[in-house]
Backbone:
């Protein structure tokens, strides 16, 4: 949208209104058409005088160009006037390119060239590269039509350079195609083929069917010259189809002509003639003089080959008429030559000579030009090759720069990447180190704890071992020794009748007493017996045994189920010994006949020993005061209490606190 | 004198061993077949001699009395073992009973009472302290849990055991259960045999991982 900057809604409305109105013209009756035309012109007349209106004139003119070139020219003139008045370079340039097309249509190539050169000047002023590219291309076009291929190729290459710099693919493909056509004229088929296929490639990439169609023609022609007829024919047919699709009738006509050329070259004259006839019909119908000329001339040549000189004369004379009107020297020269031969064959020597002379005149001027063209052609080839090389070099340097930049970037990336990686590694290793330290500390702590635990265990084990050692020493060594004494005293008692048996008896009873005591110590030291239950049972067994041995009535009462409560060896021993002492006292001092022992378990252990003896006398206190004191001390040493009272005899109450009463486990 | 009860003595203390031998030999009912001062020698000879009762000390130099009982019981289960110990409360007494002994004799026992104890044992009686009773109870409870089908103690045996573990004397038990003290002793003897069998199967079960 090159006019986007100038667009305002108001003018846009006008522009579209006119275009729609014109579009409708084609679908209505003549009457309607006239009315529409009137309203259209009034619309245009009423449009505001601005740059937009220039385009309106041009668009409308262009729509008339095919059917009515003169009317088109009137509108183009109006656009030109307005552009000059508004000093609108773009508008002017556009006017010129439209005008050039019109000149080309009328084969007015000199005028076209002048217009194109003017366009170049304007384009240079406007500093719009796209306009300049097109302007150069137009100039080259005109030179090509005028058969000045050197100038044509120079301008094409100027244009191509700009298009390449601007990255304008559309123009690149068009110019490549145009260059291909120039090289065809210069008979450099391989170069022509290269340019045309290159152009086709770009056009195809851009989905530019118009250019594709044109490219196919040049490719095909190059292929004919290279004798690749099948390829050529298929390319022309492809082009013809594109022409119908666009639609571009001149492209169709050119394609048909070229198809004819293929058949003609392979001497299939019938098919060739058919194609040329089709081209002739089409060019007459759509007012394409150049194609008409070409079709007629080729038909004449075919008739001549078929020896039908009468028909050949007809076609040739029609072709020459058009050629003279269009003033195309190259074609005219050939036509004059052919006509001269035809006239001779028809027995018209004077006319034949006339045409021969015409042929020679043109040939002289053309041969000079031909030599020049050949020299220029070499020059151009060289220069275009150089240009290509330069472009390639430029591309290379760009690539190099790109590579250098990429390399730089790469280095930068690597540098940054490695820094990031280093930082990451650093952070990770610090974290890892910290984590390890933490773990280390933790493990150290657990080790310490473990160590503490182990030392504690060791201590306990050592204590246990010490206990066991003492136990086993008492058990084995002292025990054996005692046993020996026991047995020896027995010997004494029974055998030595002369000595005092009471001494032997004393030894024996003392030894027995020590063994009993040892038994008690072992009992109190063995952890397996550290339960309340065991204490009660053990006490019962020994108390009852003792009371039975002394023929005392007894009643032992304990709870049926005793909770599983831990009680230390020290507690057990003291409680047991106090009860034992009490029973001994009863036997010794109380004169009792009956003893009641009862255990109660609440928050602590309570033992009650009651006898029905004479009771506890104050005056007796001194006698066995030490014993009582000892019992009290024993109970207090384990955090308990000792009470003694008179109550129809003597009652001793013991209390020992229990630490771990687990009532839940009470069965 | 075919009715005599044959006894072997294993005891490392010379005085004690000799005295016990003399006491046995002086009696009419018993005869001392052999004496040993260590378990190794006893293990070698006893299976061939096959005495009725072996009076076995626990603490011996080298192999212990308990190990010796285990080995001999494997070969000759009919031999009866009586532990000869200073201390009733020793852990080892129970171990010996579990290993196959059917009674124990305290060394403090007056020599003249030793014969009574031996006779009691031979006639099926056995002493059992409250501690040993408790251990036996807990053993059978444990056994009962893992192998209910092996709960071989009879109701009477259980009653006797329970009373023993509470510190009741034989006489008290016989009064309470209306049985003679001899019957109480027989029950206890049976309990020892079952303890031994059960203990051995338990060991085998452990060995075979059943």
Residues:
């Amino acid at each position: 949208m090159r006019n986007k900057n100038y667009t305002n809604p108001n003018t846009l409305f006008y522009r579209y209104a006119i275009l729609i109105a014109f579009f409708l013209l084609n679908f209505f009756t003549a009457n309607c058409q006239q009315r529409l035309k009137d309203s259209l012109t009034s619309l245009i007349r009423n449009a505001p005088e601005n740059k937009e209106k220039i385009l309106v004139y041009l668009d409308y003119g262009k729509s008339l160009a095919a059917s009515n070139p003169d009317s088109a020219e009137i509108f183009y003139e109006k656009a030109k006037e307005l552009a000059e008045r508004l000093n609108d370079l773009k508008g002017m340039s556009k006017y010129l390119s439209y005008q050039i097309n019109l000149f080309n249509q009328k084969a007015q190539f000199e005028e076209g060239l002048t217009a194109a050169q003017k366009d170049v000047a304007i384009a240079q002023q406007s500093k719009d590269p796209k306009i300049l590219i097109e302007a150069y291309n137009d100039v080259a076009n005109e030179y090509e039509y005028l058969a000045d291929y050197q100038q044509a190729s120079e301008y094409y290459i100027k244009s191509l350079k700009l298009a390449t710099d601007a990255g304008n693919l559309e123009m690149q493909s068009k110019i490549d195609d145009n260059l291909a056509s120039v090289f065809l004229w210069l008979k450099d088929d391989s170069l022509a083929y290269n340019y045309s296929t290159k152009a086709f490639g770009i056009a195809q990439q851009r989905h530019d069917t118009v250019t594709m169609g044109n490219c196919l023609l040049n490719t095909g022609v190059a292929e004919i010259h290279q004798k690749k007829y099948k390829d050529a024919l298929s390319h022309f047919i492809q082009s013809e189809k594109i022409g119908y699709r666009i639609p571009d009738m001149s492209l169709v006509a050119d394609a048909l002509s070229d198809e004819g050329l293929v058949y003609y070259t392979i001497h299939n004259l019938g098919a060739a003639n058919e194609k040329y006839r089709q081209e002739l019909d089409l060019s007459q119908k759509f007012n394409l003089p150049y194609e008409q000329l070409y079709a007629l001339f080729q038909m004449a040549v075919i008739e001549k080959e078929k020896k039908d000189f009468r028909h050949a004369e007809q076609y040739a004379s029609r072709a020459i008429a058009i050629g003279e009107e269009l003033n195309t020297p190259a074609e005219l020269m050939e036509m004059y030559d052919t006509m001269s031969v035809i006239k001779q064959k028809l027995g018209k020597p004077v006319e034949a000579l006339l045409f021969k002379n015409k042929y020679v005149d043109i040939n002289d001027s053309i041969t000079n030009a031909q030599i020049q063209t050949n020299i220029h052609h070499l020059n151009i080839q060289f220069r275009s090759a150089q240009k290509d090389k330069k472009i390639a070099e430029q591309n290379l340097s760009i690539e190099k720069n790109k590579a250098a930049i990429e390399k730089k970037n790469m280095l930068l990336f690597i540098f940054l990447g490695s820094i990031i990686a280093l930082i990451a590694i650093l952070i990770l290793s610090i974290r890892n180190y910290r984590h390890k330290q933490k773990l280390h500390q933790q493990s150290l702590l657990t080790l310490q704890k473990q160590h503490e635990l182990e030392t504690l265990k060791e201590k306990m084990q050592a204590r246990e071992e010490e206990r066991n050692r003492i136990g086993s020493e008492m058990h084995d060594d002292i025990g054996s020794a005692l046993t020996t004494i026991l047995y020896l005293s027995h010997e004494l008692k029974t055998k030595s009748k002369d000595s005092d048996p009471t001494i032997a008896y004393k030894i024996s009873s003392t030894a027995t007493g020590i063994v009993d005591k040892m038994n008690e110590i072992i009992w109190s030291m063995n952890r397996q017996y550290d339960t309340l239950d065991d204490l009660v049972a053990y006490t019962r067994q020994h108390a009852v045994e003792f009371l039975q041995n002394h023929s005392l009535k007894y009643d032992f009462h304990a709870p049926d189920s005793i909770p599983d409560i831990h009680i230390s060896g020290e507690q057990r021993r003291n409680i047991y010994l106090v009860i034992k002492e009490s029973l001994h006292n009863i036997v010794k001092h109380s004169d009792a006949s009956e003893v009641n022992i009862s255990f109660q378990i609440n928050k602590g252990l309570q033992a009650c020993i009651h006898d029905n003896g004479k009771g506890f006398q104050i005056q007796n206190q001194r006698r066995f005061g030490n014993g009582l004191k000892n019992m009290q001390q024993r109970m207090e040493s384990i955090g308990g209490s000792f009470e003694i009272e008179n109550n129809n005899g003597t009652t001793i109450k013991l209390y020992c606190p229990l630490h771990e009463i687990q009532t839940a486990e009470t069965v | 004198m075919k009715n005599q009860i044959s006894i072997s003595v294993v005891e490392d203390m010379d005085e004690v061993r000799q005295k016990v031998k003399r006491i046995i030999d002086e009696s009419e009912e018993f005869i001392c077949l052999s004496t040993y001062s260590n378990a190794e020698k006893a293990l070698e000879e006893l299976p061939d001699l096959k005495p009725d009762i072996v009076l076995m000390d626990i603490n011996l130099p080298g192999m212990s009395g308990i190990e010796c009982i285990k080995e001999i019981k494997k070969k000759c289960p009919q031999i009866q073992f009586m532990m000869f110990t200073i201390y009733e409360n020793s852990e080892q007494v129970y171990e010996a009973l579990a290993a196959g002994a059917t009674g124990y004799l305290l060394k403090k026992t007056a020599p003249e009472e030793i014969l009574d104890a031996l006779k009691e044992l031979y006639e099926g009686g056995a002493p059992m302290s409250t501690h040993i009773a408790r251990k036996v109870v807990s053993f059978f409870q444990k056994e009962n849990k893992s192998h209910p089908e092996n709960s071989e103690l009879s109701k009477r045996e259980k009653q006797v055991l329970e009373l023993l573990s509470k510190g009741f004397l034989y006489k008290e038990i016989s009064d309470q259960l209306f049985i003679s003290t001899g019957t109480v002793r027989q029950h206890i003897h049976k309990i020892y045999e079952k303890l031994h069998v059960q203990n051995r199967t338990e060991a085998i079960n452990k060995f075979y991982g059943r």
Observations:
- The mean pLDDT of chain B is 83.
- The CA atoms of residues 113 and 147 of chain B lie 40 Å apart.
- Chain B touches chain A at residues 13, 15-16, 19, 59, 86-91, 107-108, 110-111, 129-131, 134, 165-169, 171-172 (CB under 8 Å).
- Chain B has two domains: 5-122, 130-208.
